[in-house]
Design goal:
This protein is of the alpha+beta class. The chain folds into 2 domains: 5-71 and 96-175 and 267-343, 3-Layer(bba) Sandwich (FAD/NAD(P)-binding domain), CATH 3.50.50; 179-266 and 350-384, D-Amino Acid Oxidase, Chain A, domain 2 (2-Layer Sandwich). 37% of the residues lie in helices and 27% in strands. It has helices spanning 12-23, 36-41, 50-58, 63-68, 88-92, 101-114, 163-166, 234-245, 296-317, 321-324, 326-348, 356-371, 373-384, and strands at 5-8, 28-31, 47-48, 70-72, 75-79, 82-86, 96-98, 118-120, 125-129, 136-141, 144-149, 152-155, 173-188, 198-200, 207-211, 217-224, 258-272, 275-276, 279-281, 287-288. It has an 8-stranded mixed beta sheet with strand order 6-5-14-15-16-13-17-20. Helix 1 runs parallel beside helix 6 (101-114) and helix 1 (12-23) packs parallel to helix 9. The radius of gyration is 21 Å and the shape is globular. It starts with a strand and ends in a 5-residue tail after the last helix.
Length: 389
């Protein structure tokens, strides 16, 4: 097989890049190890920054988003038995939209199929070769070993993919932090009891009240990193959510059947640089953030927006400036998101349950955020997404 840009991974990054390249008249092939059904239904993030929403709309992918997405103009912080709203749109003129990542993926796949794009599902990539001048992606599809020859390879295959490990030892530098807790997440058939997300700081740990639709709630609890999901029957989950969220007067959590539950460890990771020879890396393949700041999918989309322009310039007139500067430009946004996600995580989670001094500092920080216009604006502009970094 032959194409111009070979893309590994059919998540938001890989699919959006393929869509952007198509709009520039550049051919691509997307290889995905999982089935189409799997990638269209795996639960991931659900908060889109203003810039991500604008990108989807501007590239013709915003029709269903505009019908079904839920625009939020603020978030709520709960601590010390009080509730405080951060009015993001009032402070920044921008907003977020709640729209599940799996819905974004469905829209992208539909667009690529309608345009005649090539996405090969259940086609795991085995290795890469020729990255210095004539890249080849070696993969397996329908029981056969295949080769995809291309001008460039873009690895959007996540932390466990083959793209990043292909780079020789000593080229990449990894910056990493592992947190001593995880998120227990549940998807519940319960209408949200709020119109905007609630971030709750509680002596028993952090809790987040989110949603995926007017009928489906998405809720999270801070738990120890080594917690076993089997120790959390539905009754215990709802009891703990009530304890951490029902801390203000005249407010009650809506409950319903739990559709899915899982435990996800929290970590921060950045790998530099994000390119080597004719291999370019994007999304979770090179950076992971704690979900507290809602940045994962947004960073992935920002990465490939840069790559789309860079490849367009190269194919138009051979210009290499944008390709050469991709890693440097992308990492500015990545590190800004890393700092914000770390700050939100540190402010809201119980880092050491036996340290009352720490808890007092967190309460003082939260009170300052909710009473200082400058501090609230800083939180808001980072949360909705900075236009440029």
């Amino acid at each position: 097989m032959r194409t111009q840009v070979g893309i590994i991974g059919a998540g938001p990054a890989g699919l959006m890049l393929s869509h952007l390249l198509h709009r520039h008249g550049i051919d691509s092939v997307v290889l995905e190890s999982r089935s189409r059904e799997y990638v269209e239904h795996r639960l991931r993030a659900g908060v889109l920054e203003q810039g991500s929403v604008d990108l989807l709309r501007d590239t013709g992918l915003g029709a269903r988003l505009d019908r079904e997405g839920m625009r939020h103009e603020g978030i709520e912080l709960r601590f010390d038995g009080e509730s405080h709203r951060v009015p993001m749109t009032e402070l920044t003129g921008r907003a977020i939209t709640v729209y599940g990542q799996q819905e974004v993926v469905k829209d992208m796949i539909a667009a690529r199929v309608a345009a005649g794009g090539t996405i090969l599902f259940e086609a795991p990539a085995d290795r890469l070769s020729g990255l210095d001048s004539a890249p080849v992606i070696h993969f397996r599809h329908q029981g056969r070993d295949e080769e995809l020859h291309c001008d460039f390879v873009v690895g959007c295959d996540g932390y466990h993919g083959i793209s990043r490990p292909t780079v020789p030892d000593g080229v990449l530098t990894t910056y990493e932090r592992t947190y001593p807790f995880a998120w227990l997440g549940v998807l519940a058939a319960a209408p949200p009891a709020v119109e905007e997300l609630i971030y709750a700081h509680h002596e028993r740990g952090f809790a987040l009240y989110s949603m995926r639709s007017p009928q489906i709630s998405r809720l999270y609890l801070q738990v120890p990193a080594d917690e076993d999901i089997a120790d959390w029957p539905d009754e215990r989950i709802w009891a703990e959510l009530r304890t951490r969220l029902e801390t203000v007067p005249n407010w009650t959590l809506n409950e319903g059947p739990v559709l899915e539950k899982s435990i996800t460890p929290l970590r921060s990771l950045v790998v530099e640089p994000m390119q080597w020879q004719r291999l370019y890396l994007a999304g979770d393949a090179v950076h992971i953030v704690p979900p507290t700041g809602a940045k994962g999918m947004n960073l992935a989309l920002a990465d490939v927006a840069l790559l789309g322009d860079a490849f367009a310039a190269w194919y138009a007139d051979g210009s290499t400036d944008l390709l050469d500067g991709y890693s440097r430009t992308a990492l500015r946004r990545v590190w800004r998101a890393q700092q914000f996600s770390w700050w939100m995580t540190s402010m809201l989670h119980r880092l050491n349950a036996d340290d009352p001094y720490e808890a007092k500092l967190q309460s003082a920080t939260l009170r300052y955020v909710t009473t200082s216009p400058a501090y609230a604006t800083s939180l808001a502009e980072n949360y909705v997404g900075l236009p440029e970094v």
